[in-house]
Amino acid sequence: MKTNIALIGFMGTGKTAVGRLLAKKLDKQFIELDELIARKAGQPIPEIFRREGETGFRELEIETTREVAGRKNTVIACGGGIVLNKINIDRLREECVIVCLTASPEVILKRTSGDKDSRPLLAVDDRSRQIKELLQYRKPYYERAADIIVNTSRLKTEAVVERIIEKLRKHEGYRS
C-alpha cells in the first residue's frame, strides 16, 4: 500500500500551498521538490536555469526525485515539469498516489503574476501565450501520470485538500 502523495501539475495550480496543508491534515512530512533542489544546488531555481539551462535543472530534478520518492508518509509537491521525464513518474508511482492539480490558463496567469523572477519559463513578453502553449504540451503528460485530478481554479486551498482526502479514501492502493 502507498503512504505517499505526489502533487503534480502546472505552476500556479497550488501544489505547494495544498501540499503543506494536506501534509498537516494527514500528519505526514512535507517536501517541496524545487526547494530541495535549490538547497542541494546551493542556488535558486532561476540561477540553476541561467547557469545550467533547463537540461541541467531536469538532471537535478531526476536525482532529487530518486532520493525522495521512496520515503514513507510524505506529501511531495513536485515542480511543474516533473512529468517531462518518465523516470520521475515511474519512481513516484512506486510509493505515491499521484494527484494532479489543474487550473485554467487565466487563473494560472493571475496566480503567477507576482513572481515573474522566480519562474524562468515565464520570463517572456507574452506570459499568457506561454502558459497556454506549455499547458497544451504538458496536458497529456499530466493526465497520463495522474491517479487523481482536481481542478483548483475556483477552490480555496482548504477545499482542494478536502477534495483530495475524499478521493484518496476511495482510491485503492492508498493507506493513510
End-to-end C-alpha gap: 9 Å
Beta-strand proportion:
5-15%
Radius of gyration: 15 Å
Q: Give the mean pLDDT.
A: 93
Low-confidence stretches: none
H/E element sequence: EHEHHEHEHHEH
Number of strands: 5
Q: What is the CATH top level name?
A: Alpha Beta
CATH topology, what is it called? Rossmann fold
Overall 3D geometry? globular
Biggest β-sheet: strands ordered side by side in the sheet: 2-3-1-4-5
By secondary-structure content and strand pairing, the structural class works out as alpha/beta
What this model shows, in words?
- This protein is of the alpha/beta class.
- The protein contains 7 helices and 5 strands.
- The chain has helices at 15-26, 33-41, 45-69, 86-95, 105-112, 127-145, 157-170, and strands at residues 4-9, 29-32, 74-77, 96-102, 148-151.
- A 5-stranded parallel β-sheet has the order 2-3-1-4-5, sandwiched between helices.
- Helix 1 packs across helix 7, helix 2 packs across helix 3 and helix 3 (45-69) crosses helix 4 (86-95).
